[in-house]
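quick one, two chains, predict together pls
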Amino acid sequence: MPATANDHPADRPRSWWGWGYADAQPDDAECLALGALLPGTLARPLPLPRIADLPIGDPGATPPASLAHLVTADPAERAAHAMGKAYRDVIRALRGRPGRIPDLVARPSRDQDVADLLDWAGEHAVAVIPFGGGSSVVGGVEYRGDAHRAVLSLDLTAMDRVLEIDTTSRSALIQAGALGPVLEGQLRPHGLTLRHFPQSFEFSTLGGWLATRAGGHYATVRTHIDDFVQSLRVVTPAGTSASWRLPASGAGPSPDRLFLGSEGSLGVITEAWMRLQERPRHKAAASVAFTDFHRALDAVRDIARSDLAPANCRLLDPGEALLSGASHDGSTVLVLGFESATAPADDRLATALELARAHGGRAEPPTAGRGAEAGTAVGAWRSAFLRMPYLRDGLARMGAVVETFETAATWDRVPALIDAVRTEVGAAALEATGHRATVNCRLTHVYPDGAAPYFTVVVAGRPGDEVRIWDDIKAAATDVLHRHRATVTHHHAVGRDHRPGYDTQRPEPFALALRAVKNALDPHHVLNPGVLLGRHTP
Amino acid sequence: MPATANDHPADRPRSWWGWGYADAQPDDAECLALGALLPGTLARPLPLPRIADLPIGDPGATPPASLAHLVTADPAERAAHAMGKAYRDVIRALRGRPGRIPDLVARPSRDQDVADLLDWAGEHAVAVIPFGGGSSVVGGVEYRGDAHRAVLSLDLTAMDRVLEIDTTSRSALIQAGALGPVLEGQLRPHGLTLRHFPQSFEFSTLGGWLATRAGGHYATVRTHIDDFVQSLRVVTPAGTSASWRLPASGAGPSPDRLFLGSEGSLGVITEAWMRLQERPRHKAAASVAFTDFHRALDAVRDIARSDLAPANCRLLDPGEALLSGASHDGSTVLVLGFESATAPADDRLATALELARAHGGRAEPPTAGRGAEAGTAVGAWRSAFLRMPYLRDGLARMGAVVETFETAATWDRVPALIDAVRTEVGAAALEATGHRATVNCRLTHVYPDGAAPYFTVVVAGRPGDEVRIWDDIKAAATDVLHRHRATVTHHHAVGRDHRPGYDTQRPEPFALALRAVKNALDPHHVLNPGVLLGRHTP
């Protein structure tokens, strides 16, 4: 039952160099206001970069006539596919030193197109970078190195249909190139939803979520997109892998789990049967303020260990709470949300609030129902959350350096880890810039056995030196995570920027295994070279 | 914080040829009573097989002196490690035609022992069969074929300690050779539990559960042992893989998920950090009778789609309900159980009962608290559940053929699948034996998008022909599952008996990948040959 999209975001122009929609980027006045908050930034914003100034030459390879209709060498297209949307990408564009611009952009519309393009690329040593919404913040969609004759960005967004809906099993077959709003728009008429709402929801695709093991809407239990996969279809240079639609299986190691997180290095995910949700009919949300951040951690741990399963359970340290408008008095704020399509969620919220009070939490009066979040700390947090990446670009234009990174660790390590990140990454930023950095922390997802802290570092840079400063901060972050045995990424993926941390974290026999798989499925090593495997180019 | 076991089951002699404890096997009188229920069975039970009658020769290889203390060639040990506990294994022992008896049994007590044994085996073409509790029902611990000079059964049960408990993160580092009661006995003093209670709980190990992706206690949400893994330590011929303890990670494809379900073919799991539970303080259980099996399926689907998350949600068809004493009037019975360490579970039970009533379910009065199950359909079911494999052995001694197999499929396919299994497997059994078979079905685990049906086939055999009959029934079952795109196994694993179904189900590029991993990690192909990969020997 093919459905039609009623909410296609392709009509609203996207920024080629920065986050999201071009018309949502901060204007010069807003940039100046942002800069005023951060002493040491520039007197005026960096000008917007222009595609005409980019070093875009002739493509290093030409596809055969049979593939020509899928491929373009248009400079604007190539520029828009050159990098992801990390701060490092944005500042390189602003400073006129972007990453390598791909030679070609392809837009396949079916599996056979993908297979044909991979065949051609393999024969001609053309690197293929699978590209969904391009929102990678880890260098996941950019070519680095020089081992290939040309670089092809493989844009999947023309494959964006919900092909089939099975209401009995509450699941749908969805093409991987569907952006968040595009797939939700096709599911809505059926009263169904995937409910995967990462910060990049508007600018990322199902295939990107799957390839990077994205973290989504739910703060507990089913935190990653992985948990919603029924089956995958993956086009590899060695053939197409199509797993069976199953609610669960114990037949050998999971085939899907090998491709989930493979970041385009083993194959191109083109379709997936996904488990869906009914739209929630019951909601209950509240926020809780704490004077003591460490007592708040204890409260969150108790809630995470319970079987209450909040959909939202985000803990904002005082800096995060202030930045998002959730609190102005130096409190730590816990944003709690429950939802259900089955039964009212108020009892679960009440029990969670009891647990929070036992650790000194002061609950705002609970709110329930639609629109309950407006005007509350919960609502303030949500609006700020979606605006945040645009503000980052505004800060970048003022010469600030901004880094966000996230991790996960078991509870026994979480408090010391957060303290160490604040101290050590703050020190590295000071050392690199001469300015005092803001280092904020929130917990985005929580588990019975641990939590996923997310850090934001903001510091005034030194003009022209921002990339090096960012690299220093990243190195310090990687080092402290490694020493605390916290994962190099909970849901942002590895890409190229996290390779040093990933290479140390990954058990060596698993690296052997993964290299063997790479050789078997991508014998010419054309798929996303340098991601997860292969020579690391910083 | 090493703990001591207070409940080690090694003191009670185990049956070398049949299920469980030797003294719990049905005696001749009970066998006769069982046979009386099934026309066409033998007049008297087959005699108990004797180790002295087995064809046990000299070992085909001798380990070096440095390993001699780990290894035995004792006939009783070798007999007890010759096969798993499938009906096919039991009847072969009873008929004096067991599988190949291993040449040697090793009992390592540390990782280095395992590594040394693997090194020696690799150099001398000795097959190594990792062995936990030996409860495989899929030919997972038996050598078939002739490509190796000798066969070593690698018994891990001397590595059975809980090495460390982290109460803050509610997790423990547990050696893989710990049998269910052994590890629970060490966790109990800390008020913690793994709560993994497969039917084989007393006779299977943590390592076995992990290697086979065992299904456990919970009927919903966290149904497999996979979900409780924080990290794994795996000794492979190419080195030891030790993943980091993490509550979650998005760093590349999950290393642990490659070894979960690898069934001893890629490495030997020696330790795991496991997520634990508090013992539940609140319980609520009830059973619901239905006149119509298909309406009962609809009720279970509604409950599985809700967020009520019952711990137990087992649907017994009339035959299963009768057999277990849960019902005597031809009803289908749904056994529901809720538990929580946080809050009373009665409301959740009440909501689930409402959903069941909407599909014609008649609820027994709900019961709550400790001991609530005694004397109820729930209690009857649980006692019968644990006794069932012993009764199977009693039936085997009466010449009956018994096969149990399980699967999972999406809800859209479940009703037709169950009907087809009843019809087609019943027809195959009749064809093979001339007798009418009983084909019962229960759902063991349920999901929002599907369910895991479990089938029991019982039929009077033809004396001496039982293995061929079983093979015919298995082939018919594999065929019908395949045509309905239902997985060859939900939690019994692949082993050797499920290879034909697994080979068809597994996507070919994933097979390529798995073979590449096998070559990389087990270059001499000594680990559990024929399981998942390699030549299939029926």
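The domain at 282-381 of chain B is CATH 3.30.70.3450 (Alpha-Beta Plaits).
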